[in-house]
């Protein structure tokens, strides 16, 4: 996350701009990682931040807290948020929970669990909502991989064009998320919002409000 300046700056600005809602309050950081969001919350004036991290990186998060002189305000708690016990309800929850395509391998269920168990009535969620946009694209690499089989005969004298439909099913039917850069010319139409998620009322089944376009 930290190497992604756009995303990290967005979180930092979102937290610091909400300083009035965080000053003197308690915050839970779900999946704290290295602890940078917890530090941002402390910088915004939070009285106490509970940084919960299930992986071994929690040890480095504790060191980050120490290096920034925040040991009296940021408490790093190792373990999954589903089992960690806090000494109190919190006024706000912050988390960098989003996966690729928003929901792929995301931590949303953990955030919603924490919201239900630990967030005070009317408490703050950062982020509070998310939107998902789609757009048609032109993928030259995909086109090449699909068209390759029709060119085998030209190169090797063996007709393998029957494999083109098989390759299409293999490439288009898998559930893995592919992350790759695109130029503006590859985007064929303006992105359209097709789903929105409101964390304050989303259920653990991770339902989306779907807007048909």
TrEMBL record:
Its EC number is 2.1.1.319. Pfam families: Methyltransf_25 (PF13649), PRMT_C (PF22528). Gene3D superfamilies: Hnrnp arginine n-methyltransferase1, Vaccinia Virus protein VP39. Keywords: Methyltransferase, S-adenosyl-L-methionine, Transferase. One of its GO terms (biological process) is methylation. PROSITE patterns: SAM_MT_PRMT. GO terms for molecular function: histone methyltransferase activity; protein-arginine omega-N asymmetric methyltransferase activity. Residues 129-204 form the Protein arginine N-methyltransferase domain. Residues 27-123 form the Methyltransferase domain. This is Protein arginine N-methyltransferase 6.
């Amino acid at each position: 996350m930290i190497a992604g300046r756009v995303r990290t700056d967005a979180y930092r600005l979102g937290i610091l701009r909400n300083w009035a809602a965080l000053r003197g309050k308690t915050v839970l950081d779900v999946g704290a990682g290295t602890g940078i969001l917890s530090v941002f919350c402390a910088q915004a004036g939070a009285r106490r931040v509970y940084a919960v991290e299930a992986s071994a990186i929690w040890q480095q998060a504790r060191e980050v807290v120490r290096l920034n002189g925040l040991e009296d305000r940021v408490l790093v708690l190792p373990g999954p948020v589903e089992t960690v016990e806090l000494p109190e309800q919190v006024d706000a929850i912050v988390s960098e929970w989003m996966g690729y395509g928003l929901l792929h391998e995301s931590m949303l269920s953990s955030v919603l669990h924490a919201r239900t168990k630990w967030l005070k009535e009317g408490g703050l969620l950062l982020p509070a909502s998310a939107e998902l946009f789609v757009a048609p694209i032109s993928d030259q690499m995909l086109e090449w991989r699909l068209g390759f089989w029709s060119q085998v005969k030209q190169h090797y004298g063996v007709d393998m064009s029957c494999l083109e439909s098989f390759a299409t099913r293999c490439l288009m039917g898998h559930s893995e998320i592919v992350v790759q850069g695109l130029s503006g010319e590859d985007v064929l139409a303006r992105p359209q919002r097709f789903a929105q998620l409101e964390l304050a009322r989303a259920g653990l089944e991770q339902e989306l409000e779907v807007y048909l376009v």
